[in-house]
Every structure is written in structure tokens, then in C-alpha cells.
Amino acid sequence: MATAGAPRRFCRCACFCTENLYVARYGLHVRFRGEQQLRRDYGPILRSRGCVSTTDFQQLLAELEQEVERRRRLGLESAARKALIASSYRVARPEVYDSLQDAALAPEFLAVAEYSASPGADLKGLLQRLETVSEEKRIYRVPVFTAPFCQALLEELEHFEQSDMPKGRPNTMNNYGVLLHELGLDEPLVTPLRERFLQPLMALLYPDCGGGQLDSHRAFVVKYALGQDLELGCHYDNAELTLNVALGKVFTGGALYFGGLFQAPTALTEPLEVEHVVGQGILHRGGQLHGARPLATGERWNLIIWLRASAVRNRLCPMCCRAPDLVDDEGFGDGFTREEPATVDVCALT
Questions:
Q1: What UniProt keywords are attached to this protein's entry (predicted)?
Q2: H helix count then E strand count, the chain
Q3: CB contact burial 337-348 (16+ within 10 A = b; e otherwise)
Q4: Architecture of domain 95-339
Q5: What is the pTM of this model?
Q6: 30 and 23 in contact (C-beta within 8 Å)?
Q7: What is the pLDDT of residues 195-210, one digit of tens each?
Q8: Chain centroid offset of residue 293 CA
Q9: Alpha carbons 177 and 191: distance in angstroms, whole number
Q10: Which helix (H) or strand (E) covers residue 204, if one does?
Q11: Helix, strand, or coil here: 207?
Q12: What is the residue extent of each domain of the chain?
């Protein structure tokens, strides 16, 4: 008899190696399939942003080729880092690796999650328990973690940052931070947060975006500090939905700003600014254009969870806006899944 209940195999779209490559120096996301295509598609805008000389262009070309190669190796290298960290890293705050407990969560968040999972819960009742940042943009705020848990998590992250363990970049736009699955925090922290608490909440807030069908995530912490990353350019997330929680520390500046959905031609007209509050999370659609204003003083650490629903993204990749060309990947990949073959009970046929 064919076995059932095998772990799902997650994939990425092949466009990961060619689409949305971020060039920080020119503040631009580009598609890259070779020199001629780059000149044809982006020559004028690159020149307008300072890529003028032959040396400028050759330097950009080398950077993009290097980034493509990094992305091709990413899954295997990330798995190798995770294995080394698991075997050699000595944690500072072991309690953050325990299975997520209610004591780590803000009472308001527990109440929201409990209501969302209760019989008869509806959007109107939920919105009475959340702060609506923008009704038009469907952006909401809710306390997520207690102050002691934020402090413990920050201490662990700083301890890891100062260690000699290998570290992967959170994404192409952030140079400082931590990938939580590599640190071993996916299973005890992020997965139960998604499955037990965020799923019922997002099902009411964003049923049209796969909020009730979340089956994977990508979680990372980003750090902003003077002399390091200060701001974040405008972008949209490779996710159906996003939770962004301010963990600390003490800082000024760095507000989030939001435009419209990335498909809209006037998406950045009159952006909405949202200040961070430590311990509180901002909920928004992954396709909402957003960025972060420059940090003025201090350090800012934020936990970002990209929430993904394969039932949505299997139909259309949000990064290339085409049917995904699936490539097997490690872990949750980029949240895509292959259609599972029908399970056949061989014994019943004999």
C-alpha cells in the first residue's frame, strides 16, 4: 500500500535566480538574464541613477552574476550552516528555544487569537480587538510578545551575532540580521506562532489572500544601526501576508511607510507612515509596497515573518507574476508545493 502522511516537499520558483535582484547602490530591483538584456531593459534608468561609465556597468554586472550564483547555492549552504550551528553553537538564553508558551505572548494577542478561533467569530468582532492602522490598506497592529520575551530573544540574537558561527543574510536588501530557521527557532517558536495563533487571526482578516490556508513561512530578524543598515528601500514581500514585530532596542526614526499594492500604477502616491512600538506587530498584505525611513539614533531589531499559502502561490508566483516553474528546495523553500499524486491502496486492487 502506498504510504500516506509523508512530509510535504516545498519548492521555489525558478525565477528566484533571475527576478527581483536588488541593487542597493541604485535603489533598484532588476530582472537579470545577461548583459544585453540588462542594457536593454534598464540602461536609461541606471544611467539616471548614476551608473554612467563602463566601469560602473561592469561592476554592476559582476555584482549581479555573483548574486545569481549565491541564490543558486543558497538552499544547500543554508542547510549546512544550520547543521553546524546545531552541533557547535552554545546558546545564551535556552528558554527561547523551548516550545512557545502563552507566557511569552502579550495578553492582547492571546485574546485576539482566542476570539479568532472561537465559534461565531467574525471580522467585525475581531476589528474591535485590533488597532486598524489603515482601513483602506488593510494594515493592522496588535501587541504580540511580552517585554521580558523580547528582551530574552534580543539577548540570544546578540549573543549569536557576536559568535563565530556562520551567518546567512536575511534577504538581498538587509545585510544585518539572523535567519531563524538556521538558528533553530523555526520549530519551537515560529511554526507554533503561525499554526496556533496567526492562522485563525489571518483567516478572518485576509481570507482572500490565503489567510486561512497558511502552510509555510520564512522568518528572520533584521537589525538597523548607525554604521550598518540604516533604511530599507521600497519593495514588496515574497509572501501572501506579513507580520513585522519590533523587538527593540531604543531608537528614533526608522518608521515604516506603506504605499498601495505593487500592481497599482500609482502605488507610492501619498505613502502612509507607521511608527514602531516595541513588542507590537504590524500585519499587512505581502503585496503592499513598503519600506523603512532612515534610522536616526540607536538600534532597531525587528522580527519579520513572511506567511505563505501554497494554495495561492501555486497558481501564480508573486515575484514573476507567472505560473511558477517549480524547483525542489530545502525546508519550506519559497512556499510552493507540487501537486501530490493520488494515493492508491494497492492491496485493495489485488
A1: Dioxygenase, Iron, Metal-binding, Oxidoreductase, Vitamin C
A2: 9, 17
A3: beeeeeeeeeee
A4: Sandwich (2.60)
A5: 0.90
A6: yes
A7: 999 999 999 999 999 9
A8: 18
A9: 19
A10: helix 199-205
A11: helix
A12: 14-88, 95-339
